[in-house]
# Entry
Amino acid sequence: MGKRTIVPFGPQHPALPEPVHLDLELEDETVVRAVPSIGYVHRGLEKLTESYDYESMTYVMERVCGICSFGHGWGYTGAVEGLMGVNIPDRAEYLRIVFHELSRVHSHLLWLGLLADGLGFDSLFMHCWRIREKVLDVFEAVTGGRVILSYCKVGGVKKDLTPEMVQRIVSMCDDIEEDMRRTGYVFMKDSSVRNRLCGTGVLSKEDAVELCCVGPVARGSGVDNDVRSASKWYREVGFEPVLYDEGDCWSRCMVRVDEVVQSLNLVRTALRNLPDGDIAVPVKGPAPVGDFAFRVEQPRGEAFYYVQGNGTKNLGRARVRTPTNINIPAMVRTLQGCNLQDVSMLVITIDPCISCTER
Amino acid sequence: MTEEQIFEDLSPADVYRTAEALRADGYRMVQICGVTREGSTEVLYSFDRDHRLVNYRVDVPFGTSVRSITPVYWAAFVYENEVHDLFGVEFEDSKLDYKGNFFRMSAKTPWKGPEKEVS
# Structure
């Protein structure tokens, strides 16, 4: 047994877009133990339910994360609608799917770019982010925002799509699919990518189940717990989960590559079958006493939203459990036994969003 | 995504045994969170199997503790440490106890509710 050394990793590190600290206990260059430490960006957003009524809290919840902002808005409003017994119009359900899947496309492309950057493959990084810009341009054209969309509200969505905008989104999906045919091929086949990712950071199916993993981390290990499977609306647009069995960094990458193309298909199907009718129903009055939980499959995995009503306009509790929160234990487990040089790849393929996690 | 969900009350003494039974039945732990109460903290445990969500509300009076479920679901350490740091709930026999250093905060247990008024 070699001498043990503790190497601090983060909270500021080139591989980390956000601050998390890991104490890496090494024997020679092998990690034998990793202890995570968070808490650098805890904002206490959930506590703001005391100051904001349930409608205004939507704006707070959207700011839990700048990448999956739309999903947080949907998750929170969905929970409040469930608590209040509100059924939103079919058209609003479809529009939420459209914007949520477009959010997944831009989130995965952002992540693929970060992975390429971590690999030192700068041209690939720039291609991914160039493609992603097309989605942000559509967001801006429809909602006026590129990051925080403020599109969901309690009772439905705020703005309808014109026929011209529907056509623009469909054309954009076609463009991105063509781009992904070339860019996705590089992730799938390029030897410099495969050499770095294949066989690295293997998380077995058993470990993924034991550690309660979610999202591409779970699906990359062959575990299907995608909550979209339980949605009537997603079934209507033909959703099928993307699964890979290898459990390594490459399979987690390929889940995301395939999901970009799948999300484009879901968007096109939803727009083709967009029901007529209203986009929202009015919701008024205090939130009743009771509990409701709602889940959304965010780009990083299942996010859990819990609201507790107390008979007033302010909720007694609004809780968000983000996907990174539950994937941290998997990150710790896969780091055990890996080589020090692979730590950054492993951390990236979990796609940690620490601001989300700490809220 | 609206789904089948159940909310049940559970006593602190039954938490560990229930977690063991759920694990044996193939349930996945979804989350644990705290809710501010007067004189106690409500801890909500959520589990899932085949997209069926089961939630247990556990009322933990101030000054008492609840047995950690990290021996059953190791991943629970993230939530138990969070609930400990924000609400001051003590978890016994944790597999990974940060001893109050999980979140870096200027105030100790900021979400803990007020003591119950004695009439």
In short: The interface with chain B takes residues 37-40, 42, 44, 47, 78, 82, 209-212, 225, 227-231, 233-234, 291-297, 302, 304, 306, 308, 316-317, 319, 321, 325-326, 328-330, 358 of chain A (CB under 8 Å). Chain A has one domain: 42-334+341-358.
